[in-house]
Amino acid sequence: MTRFTVNNQAVEYRLDPATPLLWALRDASNLTGTKYGCGTGHCGACTVDVDGRAIRSCSMTIAEAEGTYVTTIEGLSRERSHPLQLAFLADNLVQCGFCVPGIIMAASVLLRRNPDPDEATIRGAITNLCRCGIYPRLVEAIERAARAARGEEVIAAGARPGIDPADAARVVPALVPPKLSDR
């Protein structure tokens, strides 16, 4: 049995020690913010914070995680109030969103180590792949989050878009296709 701390909760996994951390988090702990992208550690969709290091969780086994502290996107801020999350929302950075949890986790490790990174440092630390191409705005959002974390800027992210439950699903009369003779 493998034991480590996930999002400040002690966890004991009854899985094969060779199980990738990614699958333990997603399947056993239902922390689905950590995404499966390439499975080879190249894309970064599965990035989590392990003892203050940005780790590609598809490339680390749970045996290697024994005794560590793991933070996933869900553990960064349940209220989505972390400066990075606020900056990404305020700057409308997210497109499809698949890569964003991994990017935010890599950026959070960076900002903890370096609260005032320059553009070159950010680009060197964030090696995650994004098929939507958010890169031009990514550096600006991370710089903005860094300023907010230092208390130099307040990020007022707008309300998250939502759907009134009454509008989410409606019963519509059955549509009867026209007869061929009516066309």
UniProtKB/TrEMBL annotation:
SUPFAM superfamilies: 2Fe-2S ferredoxin-like (SSF54292), CO dehydrogenase ISP C-domain like (SSF47741). Residues 1-76 form the 2Fe-2S ferredoxin-type domain. PROSITE patterns: 2FE2S_FER_1 (PS00197), 2FE2S_FER_2 (PS51085). CDD domains: fer2. Keywords: 2Fe-2S, Iron, Iron-sulfur, Metal-binding, Oxidoreductase. InterPro entries: 2Fe-2S-bd, 2Fe-2S-bd_dom_sf, 2Fe-2S_ferredoxin-like_sf, 2Fe-2S_ferredoxin-type, 2Fe2S_fd_BS, Beta-grasp_dom_sf, Diverse_Oxidoreductases. This is (2Fe-2S)-binding protein.
